[in-house]
Each structure stands twice: as C-alpha cells, then as structure tokens.
C-alpha cells in the first residue's frame, strides 16, 4: 500500500465520521493517480441499506440486486456500493479492469490486482477472466477506456474481448447507446476504434471511416448514424433518436427536397450536408435550407382560426390544408401572405 493525496468527497467524509469502514474506489482513484480531476465518485462502504438511509436524506437505489446507491449530500453526488460481510478486496474483484480496481482509504491505497502497474505500463487488463461475461457492456467500455486512458488491452483481455463479443447485445439497449455516446467524446485513434467496433459488430462504411473523429465531434446523431447502419442496430435506439438517425440515412443516400429539409433543424442540415460531402456530394444543403421562404408550418401567415373562418372544416382538415399551403410556398407557387393564402384556400380547396 502506498500513500495517495486525499481524494476530497463529502459523502466519504460523512461515512467515515459516522464510523463505517469506507473506501473511495474505481475511476476517482485512477484519475487521482494520473493527476486528473474526476467527475464521478465511487465509494465502497461496509454499511446496510437502512443505515445508509439513516445517514443521508437522499438515497436512490441503482444497480443489480440493489447493492449500489446514488447518494446526494451537500451538492455532491456519489455512488455507494454496499460491502455486506465482505472485505474490500472482494468488492475490487468484481470490478471491470485492474486500473479501476484500486481503493483509497484516506491516504492509503489498496491495490490487490496491480492496477497501478497497469497504468504505468499503459495496459488494460480485466480483473478476472469472467469480467466481460459478468457484464457485457464492459466490451464497449474497454474500447472507450483504451481511448480515454491511452492504454491497450493486453493479450488475455483482448482474447476474452473477441471470445465474448457476441454477448454485447444481451445488454440493455439503453446501456449500449449510453456507452457508445461516452465513446464518442473520447476517440483519439480512429483506426483502433474502428477495428474494435467492427469486432463487436458495428460496421462503418469506407467513406466515413477516415473521418470518424470529425464525425464524432459534430453530434450524437451523426455519430450514431454512421455506426448504426442496419435495421438490427438502428433498433437499439429510442423512438425519437431512431427517427432522426433514419432521416440522416435517407438524406445521405438521396438529395433531400425542400420538404425533406423542413424535417431537420439547421444543425441537422449541417450534419447531413457534411456526411454527404464525405461521400462526394457537391450540393450545399445549408445554402438550400437558408434560402427556404419558410422553415416551419408554424411560420404560415394564416392560423387555424383563419382557415376555419374561411370555411375549412375543423379537425384533421386544418392540418391537411396547412401542409398543402406549405408545399406550394416551398415550390414557389404561392407567397406566404395571408390574403394570398386565404384566397387560394377559398378558390381551390373548399368545395
């Protein structure tokens, strides 16, 4: 055990003052060793759920079998894992990688799996051979950790990575997407990321592969659109994000019409235009979007009430008439002027 400067945590301090055996674990310790700030505080504590709730007023159960809790205290949030009749070494044994299996008790380090050595050697090693089996999301986390820490999986870990790759999609859709989006912000070596993602079943087309870092820097949607390229992968997405990704797919494949562009906001048009440029397109969609005479159905110069007073039946017919007006404005057949639109409705659309 070696000395480490004190990791400041109000939750940790409160638990120690209350008399419980308590350790800071995981990423916070790792980051402290690297001299980096850590956004997350993970704590292992020999305490029961009832006792934890008696110490803190706001405790939220998370994780499997309710052994992990989010604790909120004096503006700090920490994840507390209960050590029930087990030593800290057993808690560390359940962690993903050795660099995350280090505990700090005040200024003292507990490192039974040589995580410090792995950090120095820039090596990512699983704690046990069952690591990926116990939690398949660790497969994606390994890809991210390589980028985040500038380390490389050792031979045994990589062999296990390949052997267990099919398990990834047994994890929940939400966790897979969450981990992919965390990876988006960490990519430094795109060729390595592409190699590992392909092993896991994510195929990036040759037009996009060389520019993966630039694509990742743009938005969640653009990054996911180039990673999730078939129906099975797109099905991982929640409904709204799935709709956006499918629009990206469609408009990258074909030139979007003016009506199509209205289904996107300006930043989305910029994303799609960038992806199309990577495929050799010369069409400047952003200029096309900016020249549109109207960009939202809410910008029509007539309201629903105006249309009702003009004789349009209430209900779905209002939306239909507005859509037809919008199309004609975009096609240059009508000007977005109230009198012009109402005249057209009365002459052409009311029978």
From TrEMBL:
Keywords: Magnesium, Metal-binding, Nucleotidyltransferase, RNA-binding, Transferase, tRNA processing. One of its GO terms (biological process) is tRNA processing. Coiled coil: none annotated. Pfam families: PolyA_pol, tRNA_NucTran2_2. InterPro entries: Bact_CCA-adding_enz_type3_sf, CCA-adding_enz_C, NT_sf, PolA_pol_head_dom. Its cofactor is Mg(2+). The keyword Metal-binding applies. Residues 275-345 form the CCA-adding enzyme C-terminal domain. Belongs to the tRNA nucleotidyltransferase/poly(A) polymerase family. This is CCA tRNA nucleotidyltransferase. It comes from Paenalkalicoccus suaedae. The lineage of its organism: Bacteria, Bacillati, Bacillota, Bacilli, Bacillales.
